[in-house]
Amino acid sequence: MDTSHLTQHAGTAGALFASIFVVATTTMRTMIPLRVFAILTNLVLIGTAIPTRNYLVIVVQALVLVLNSYRLHQMLQLVRDVKRSVSSDLSMEWLKPFMTERKCAANEVLFYKDEKADSMFYIVSGQFRLVESGIELPVGAIVGELGMLSPSNLRTQTLECIEGGVILSVSYTQVEQLYVQNPAFGFYFLRLASARLFQNIDTLEQRLASAAAKPA
């Protein structure tokens, strides 16, 4: 039985479907749908190459299929990590290798308000206080992040050590690199900065309310 016509038709149909998939991928704006369509394109090209015994296309498309599948898995995992970081606290254990340890003595000032900011800190032990707002920071807190968001990169408050302890510091340059490389950290950093701003506003409102309640 002559199968040349069937092979020819299969090749034509496959090329048509593959072309449709390729055109469809140009309309994709996000990477996950793009990877899905790329995988479908790989499968169609492999399917059309089998009847024609085009082993080169089969091998190449099989390798690209594995790569696209792996990249799709990475992106789906990344989306899950980002969603987890938004809905829960993100452990900062993985950040510690990028940080430098520093011991602080009681009454030591780590930085002053309006001072040029170039790093943020992670509190390992001891007690620390933001002088202007009176906020005491617990172990595990991160401080100094607002200086990075400030247009002039200036400290917004003074940080004082009220009980000797240990902190870890990381430069803003490293933070920027981590922000780009790890979106989960980026979301955590935005949540952290927002929480600090709302905390400062709440403290200010309480002080204003207390001042207004005092008899003249």
Describe this entry's structure for a reader.
The chain has 216 residues and is of the alpha+beta class. 56% of the residues lie in helices and 16% in strands. The protein has helices at 4-25, 31-52, 55-87, 146-149, 172-181, 183-213, and strands at 100-104, 109-111, 119-123, 127-130, 135-137, 142-143, 159-163, 165-171. Strands 1-8-3-6 form a four-stranded antiparallel beta sheet. A four-stranded antiparallel beta sheet has the order 2-7-4-5, with no helix packed on it. Strand 4 (127-130) and strand 5 form a beta hairpin. The N and C termini lie far apart (107 Å). The mean pLDDT is 78.
Assign an overall shape: elongated
On the 0-100 scale, what is the average pLDDT? 78
**Low-pLDDT segments, ≥5 res:** none
Summed up, the helix count is 6
Strand order of the largest sheet: 1-8-3-6
Computed over alpha carbons, the radius of gyration is 28 Å
Q: How much of the sequence is in beta strands?
A: 15-25%
End-to-end CA span: 107 Å
Largest sheet: 4 strands, antiparallel
Structural class given helices, strands, pairing?
A: alpha+beta
Percent in helix: 55-70%
Written as H for each helix and E for each strand, in order along the chain, the element string is HHHEEEEEEHEEHH
Report the strand count: 8
